Amino acid sequence: MKPHNPPGLQVPELLEQIVEFLHDDREALQSCATSSRILTSVAQRHLFYAITSFPTQANYIAPGRLCAILADSPHLAPLIRRVDLNLNTKSDAGLAGVGLSHVQEIGVWGMAGGGRNVHEPTLDTARRLIGSQLVQRVELMGSYRDIRLLGRLFGDCTPHLQEVVFKYVFVKQTLGDGDFPYPLVSWAVRTRLTRLALLSSNRLIAWLVNEDCPFDISHLVDVDVSVSIGMHTHTQPLLERARSTIQRLRFSMALVCPAHGGPFIDLTRFPALTHVTVNTPMGELPNILPAMAKLDPHNNIREVVFAGPAVGGPGEQFEAMLREFDSAFAAFPLPTLERVEIQVQKSQRSFNASLVSDVSERNAEMLRLAQHCGVADRQKTAALLRECLPVLSSKRLLIITEGEDRWHSS
Description:
Strand content: 15-25%
Largest sheet: 12 strands, parallel
Structural class: alpha/beta
Number of helices: 12
């Protein structure tokens, strides 16, 4: 008779979970890769999954060293799925010839000073990588002297590209700002994006809806405009390009709040909308009510998420506000609603390490104390939310979670 194996994880799955736990510890991963043959392949997948040419990052590998590693061990090249390049770094041009054919995600940093002196080989490398058949996502950050530079960067992008994230992108010259060093480009076929994040990159809106842009944004499904400083009035016209296809929309409360001059977003314009995420301080939850009240009774919304930092020391007024919000929100006609999630996020602004200039032992103690207080605040807020939102709780709709710190004031 064969021995009975109790249910549970198999050895390969267990090893995967052990190494996954060490994902952010590069030294531990390197030890696993070099000291244990059984862990080598698993650790290598984590070590080489994402690489960057930024020396300050934990996953930094100098381009020259990476070329040498892949020349000696070509089997590692298919493990690389994300590459971050700096258009201000000449050595990044060498990444073009190292066989990064399995990369699915590209991160591109703009040039220091806006890129007055573009390093053409590095720009060409970035463009060729973006044009790779497997690349599905590109994330742009930093400064660009000229909007036409972005057109050149995406000049070879393929239909496989689905998502572009603009994160704090500044463009010195935009459409209508005068003469440009690069000629206009006419795109016979545009890359059809399904996901777009425009995070504090307000000067790009005119370009995104212009014929000079290589992207077709009329079929967007997932849009994030949650960090929309300075572009409130332009948000709805941008979203109108894909009003019939947008299913997931993330925005800041400021875009629907009259107190901020809004509303700047009209949720009734998106008939396919199923998921809504609102970045908001917990004290501003009622500001969403007027926008939700206008929805068609036959809407298709299945999930609403409110993401914001923990509230320190809420009082009776805050609790009363939550109860009123609970009753009002639960009364809306949301026939397909399955989930109302409140992500209680930690605020990075709750502790400033630079204010502590004492000895290292004291620094560590202060940091532990701040982190403990942050956890306590989130736990306190989560408990209060469960207590003060009884209607949503009774309908088995309410979920309280702890999320990443993605909240930004707008």
